[in-house]
Write a structure and sequence with these properties.
The protein is of the alpha/beta class. The chain has helices at 11-22, 51-64, 74-90, 97-116, 146-149, 154-157, 169-178, 200-208; strands spanning 2-6, 26-33, 68-72, 121-123, 128-131, 134-137, 160-161, 213-217, 223-227, 254-259, 264-268, 275-285, 295-301, 308-315, 319-328, 336-341, 344-354. It folds into 3 domains: 2-178, Rossmann fold (3-Layer(aba) Sandwich); 210-272, Roll (SH3 type barrels), CATH 2.30.30; 274-354, Beta Barrel (Elongation Factor Tu (Ef-tu), domain 3), CATH 2.40.30.10. Its EC number is 2.8.1.13.
Length: 355
């Protein structure tokens, strides 16, 4: 089988490529250049698509003994991930750029090109299991990435390979060292790769402009502070609220909602964050599930590495209505709701509202 191995420059993708090659497949490594100015992206422990990473990926391919190429995806990444990220915040939502990158870049743009070039599948270093086209959690709960893969369609999953499915991160690092891969001890990437200094608010302010607005207390209806742009806040946020006066009960206040048109941020007590009803749009059904009954019993994960909630899901036209058996807090529109049957992904949708 001809396999295109996506190599980010990290230890996971390097070991994934090595395992596929050792299994006897015809493997070609490819690194995605996602920025026209790689120096503006995060490096070291915080990067995944810099010049440093491309060099690490090339060295790994040399050790494995496979051909290696760099594909320029900068324009597509900027349009589908960076611009989407900014637009979502401008609309009062909180996007997950890693989820969008998997959907639009790694398993749409890359897979489409790979199939056009005659490859049979794309292999990545994601920590998730894929069995007969069914996506399942990794045994390493702390590294499980099935949530950010929950947006993939059945067709995309049918051309995907996750060679690390049954391995823990510790096992992957040990194997990398045995194979002589120099990335064996390279720190994991984290945070947002295209925000070099990690200051999301400054990044958004530079693109959307400062815009002073009120911070309103939900209980009293009074203005208790001002902000420089509602885009700088997310539902559930506690720190950095710039509130002028303490709450009457002396307890902390959290962001309850964001209204981009009036540029208003509403805050209130933690108890007001609790929700049991969620409406989510753009559902993708990619697992073994029967949606014809109109209602599904399952569990739902509402953020990467977040808590899992037992739920009932009512299937509608272009949307799903999720009822949680126990309340969740900090549920932000724009995030993904990934549905599970045990450890099996059955579908996903984008959170539109919660109450």
């Amino acid at each position: 089988m001809r396999v295109l191995a996506a190599m980010s420059g990290g230890v996971d993708s390097a070991v994934a490529a090595a395992r596929i090659a050792e299994a006897g497949h015809d493997v070609t490594g490819v690194h995605l250049a996602l920025s026209s100015n790689p120096q503006s992206y995060r490096t070291g422990a915080r990067g995944c698509c810099t010049v440093e990473d491309s060099r690490d990926a090339r060295r790994a391919a040399d050790v494995i003994g496979i051909p290696f190429y760099i594909w320029d995806m900068a324009e597509r990444f900027h349009r589908d991930v960076v611009e989407d990220f900014v637009a979502e915040y401008a609309a009062g939502r909180t996007p997950n750029p890693c989820l969008r990158c998997n959907e639009k870049i790694k398993f749409e743009a890359v897979l489409d090109r790979a199939l056009a070039l005659g490859f049979d599948a794309v292999a990545t270093g994601h920590h998730a299991r894929l069995e007969d086209g069914v996506l399942r959690r990794s045994p390493d709960e702390g590294k499980d990435q099935s949530y950010v893969l929950g947006v993939l369609t059945r067709e995309q999953l049918s051309h995907a390979i996750f060679p690390l499915g049954d391995s823990t991160k510790a096992q992957v690092r040990e194997e990398a060292a045995r194979r002589g891969l120099t990335v064996a001890d390279k720190p994991d990437s984290h945070d947002i790769c295209f925000i070099a200094d990690g200051d999301t608010r400054a990044f958004l302010a530079d693109r959307l402009g400062e815009a002073e607005g009120p911070i309103v207390d939900a209980l009293s209806g009074k203005v208790v502070g001002t902000h420089g742009g509602a885009f700088g806040y997310t539902v559930g946020q506690r720190k950095g609220l710039n509130i002028d006066r303490p709450a009457a009960d002396g307890r902390p206040r959290y962001v309850l909602s964001i209204e981009p048109v009036s540029n208003t941020v509403t805050v209130g007590p933690r108890a007001a964050l609790e929700v049991t009803s969620i409406v989510a749009t753009k559902p993708v059904w990619n697992g073994p599930v029967d949606t014809s009954t109109g209602e599904i019993g399952c569990s739902v994960q509402l953020r990467a590495h977040g808590e899992v909630y037992p739920a009932r899901v009512r299937v509608g036209e272009g949307e799903v209505h999720i009822t949680l058996e126990a309340p969740a807090t900090g549920v932000a529109p724009g995030q993904g709701a990934v549905l599970y049957d045990g450890d099996t992904v059955i579908g996903s949708a984008t959170i539109a509202s919660a109450a």
